[in-house]
């Protein structure tokens, strides 16, 4: 069995210190201590597949980590400054406009995640120029990034399930995929989306 991490010091049982279960993918950010907890479930599916995290796995493995890191600068971390002192460094307007943490994080991480993926891929002797066949269609490695990113947010497409999600303040996977990608110019370029189409609007909402 591969070991991806061990608690340290040994026998510390760090998983028991966090509200988020270690058995489900996700993250938990503690703004008071500037600590990000990433449960083993985020990488458990790799146990019998690989001992390393290859670039093609970045959209599946690193997206949740990036979302958690963004917690340091969104509303969750807006009441603690860089010295971990209690201090509000957001103004009232920002608090009002940027209150939907998950939505903002999804839009914020897609650019850095894509850049890291392409940078590592291009360092591997032409790996970025490879193409693979999916359902009789040839796709390149940049297109594969966006497909795998979407796979990481797959959920039950049932309308009733979506309504239940919305009632609990969660956003259906379809929206969490489409909205960040329609606002990301490199997605439109990778799939040659015509300007003005739903996935390539003329006016985009960007974070950076």
From TrEMBL:
Domain Peptidase M13 C-terminal, by residue range, is 99-207
Classification via PROSITE patterns: NEPRILYSIN (PS51885)
Q: One biological-process term from Gene Ontology?
A: protein processing
Any one GO MF term held by the record is: metalloendopeptidase activity
This protein's source sits in the domain of life called Eukaryota
Pfam family example for this protein? Peptidase_M13
Q: Return the GO cellular component terms, semicolon-separated.
A: plasma membrane
Q: What InterPro entries does this protein's entry cite?
A: MetalloPept_cat_dom_sf (IPR024079), Peptidase_M13 (IPR000718), Peptidase_M13_C (IPR018497)
What is this protein called in UniProt? Peptidase M13 C-terminal domain-containing protein
């Amino acid at each position: 069995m591969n070991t991806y991490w061990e608690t340290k010091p040994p026998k510390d049982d760090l998983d028991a210190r966090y509200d988020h279960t270690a058995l489900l993918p996700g993250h938990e950010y503690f703004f008071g201590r500037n600590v990000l907890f990433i449960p083993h479930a985020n990488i458990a599916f790799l146990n019998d597949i690989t001992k390393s995290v290859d670039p093609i796995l970045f959209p599946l493995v690193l997206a949740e980590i990036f979302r958690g890191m963004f917690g340091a600068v969104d509303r969750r971390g807006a009441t603690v400054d860089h010295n971990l002192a209690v201090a509000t460094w957001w103004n009232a307007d920002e608090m009002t406009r940027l209150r939907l943490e998950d939505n903002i994080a999804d839009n914020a991480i897609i650019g850095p995640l894509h850049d890291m993926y392409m940078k590592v891929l291009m360092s591997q002797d032409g790996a970025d120029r490879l193409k693979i066949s999916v359902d009789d269609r040839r796709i390149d490695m940049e297109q594969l990034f966006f497909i795998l990113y979407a796979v990481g947010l797959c959920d039950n497409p049932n309308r009733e399930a979506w309504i239940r999600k919305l009632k609990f303040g969660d956003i259906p996977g379809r929206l969490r995929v489409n909205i960040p990608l329609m606002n990301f110019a490199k997605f439109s370029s990778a799939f040659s989306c015509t300007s003005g189409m739903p996935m390539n609007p003329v006016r985009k909402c960007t974070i950076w």
